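> @MW can you paste both from yesterday?
MW: sure, first one:
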Amino acid sequence: MTKARLLRLSVVLVSVFMILLIIVYWDNVGTAHFYLHTSFSRPHSSGAIPGITAGEGWETLPDVDEFLAKLLSSSLKQNTSIPRKTEQLLIQGSSKPVVSNLEENVRGYDWSVHSDKNSLDQEKLQIERQRTLREFCANSSLTFPTKERSFDDIPNYELNHLIVDDRHGIIYCYVPKVACTNWKRVMIVLSESLLDQGVPYRNPLDIPREHVHNTSTHLTFNKFWRRYGKFSRHLMKIKLKKYTKFLFVRDPFVRLISAFRSKFELENEEFYQRFAIPMLKLYSNHTNLPTSVREAFEAGFKVSFSDFIQYLLDPRTEKMVPFNEHWRQIYRLCHPCQIDYDFIGKLETLDEDAAYLLQLLKVDRLLHFPPSYRNRTASSWEDNWFAKIPLAWRQQLYKLYEADFVLFGYPKPENLLKD
């Protein structure tokens, strides 16, 4: 009788173990380039599981984290090389972008060659950006909503901007209006998450824009719950330790101008229905508005920049629905005080930062970052855009986005905040 019970217990334990193994294998965590040796990667002690900082022992991890991390490292074979034939294929591709979107037609592309800055300067730049971020995250003089919460306190739906590439061990937090379309394209090529006639895309610019922003294309943290259930948070934490994490940021006010230009100065049916109609009714006192954006533009009904600023400052806005991702603060999208980012890029230095990052990720032979847009919304335009915005509104707007200015080292726009 006792032997029968032991046998049944053994079968149950083995079944549970196999289920966990299948779950982990499904996510393919241990495949190529499971972790990266870069100048900004944390040091790994000999024999330690990659991603655990030197000096950290297994006793610092919760039991489930420990079990899963050991399981990932011991049960899955690491394929750390990409076949040369595949590598050559990835480098190939069309030399010109597929331009199928009005916004991209308007902007055009800059195909000029940009010289890379000295890598030592780039390394120092990264150290300074990370130091600024960490100092202000720890500084009690800077306060903003969600600053003090832990990673466990972040709801799953707020983790939808963290894109995971398990093939190369990369996590990218995308910020709309900060070259995120092309960075998403890069992530698709690296992760091979999208196929064209059965073959993974090799050139980022060959990927149609409508596929780039399709949420089903990317594996993001907020999808982990459906895959892993109660183990999802543990796996997120392990990947945050092991993988290289990066984001790109931008001057907050210039990002707002860029968002306004692309969503309200161009014919965008979705944004007209969801945002323009309410803004025109609330702040311009228009009634009986056209039912389509084309009819509205032909009749001269357009949201003004002043309408847009009023909408952002209106306390009713956030009560009805959280800010749209195109103007939501970066700290709310990427949680920089809860996630220790390894690389912080800026749109103002996009070409140099992108080239350096791909080199550090050891994928620069596989692809190049797509050429940047011409006529990028410039910081020098701020004065013109805000000239007709009342001073009190500008000051309130700065307070709304102050954390993004400070955390990412952007100077306070004193010329806009004083008479």
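MW: second:
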Amino acid sequence: MNQATPARKLEEVLHLAELCIEVLQQNEEHHAEAFAWWPDLLAEHAEKFWALFTVDMDTALEAQPQDSWDSFPLFQLLNNFLRTDTLLCNGKFHKHLQEIFVPLVVRYVDLMESSIAQSIHRGFEQETWQPVKNIANSLPNVALPKVPSLPLNLPQIPNFSAPSWMASLYESTNGSATSEDLFWKLDALQMFVFDLHWPEQEFAHHLEQRLKLMASDMIEACVKRTRTAFELKLQKASKTTDLRIPASVCTMFNVLVDAKKQSTKLCALDGGQEQQYHSKIDDLIDNTVKEIISLLVSKFVSVLEGVLSKLSRYDEGTFFSSILSFTVKAAAKYVDVPKPGMDLADTYIMFVRQNQDILREKVNEEMYIEKLF
């Protein structure tokens, strides 16, 4: 073992842990009834047994490189056994195990927060706002980005199953690449920490609170960046009846729809003061939706004002109108002439209908569409 690589040492200790658990389970099966009157003796024996294992475990863990996360499966294996054993749960060895892994978990969450924050920043700088479809198949294998400004390789999330909501979510959504990536990472991180099943309640609660607050901050950043991008996109759009809502604007709507759905899961904590994270982000999303609906309505109104301005040329009593009506009457003797302004009116009606169709087809939330209309 002394000559082995860190990875090999960890592999051996993981295998040894499996054998130790198996031995203790056999002891329980064969001797529990005989020792039913002396459970403390059985517990004392098990603690001595784990004390022998501790020597090898500590040696193997000390050999691991800094910011290596390969040892988490060892914690999960041992903790899942110890937390279900009434004699050993939060016993001497169990507490020692937690003491070793507390700094690792805290460091991991810290680095993940930096990683996700920087990936949001970079993602929105390069965001095309093209709707992302069929992302569910590729996301579970996406490695978390390495951030050059940090002098280390950022952690990769250890093995875990894809979040249960992923399939149903991505079948119906057309959000942006950055937002989909964000929601997935936040959920994956929360699922990983949840799967640790931390036995000490106070630290477990601290971890959960930290992750919910992190999700709230990240989603807030996502919503604000989306709102800014929406306003810039709309400012550049045409003010005439040629305007057709770009797909990117619909994608921004959908990002807010997804943020609303995901905040319920990612930001909500049961009870008391912690509920404020979810309430705060919910209020922000609702207000942002109101603002972007207002911006879009203002854009449509400016188009309408342009149309009305052109139609006003045909108002009776104006000098320009009298000339137009004279020429129309003169021409009508020879050909079928449309009424003044009808082409303009038809163009405006087409503008409204086509934009309604675009919004109905591409925005995922009926309630928002109804408010906009």
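> thanks! The mean pLDDT is 82.
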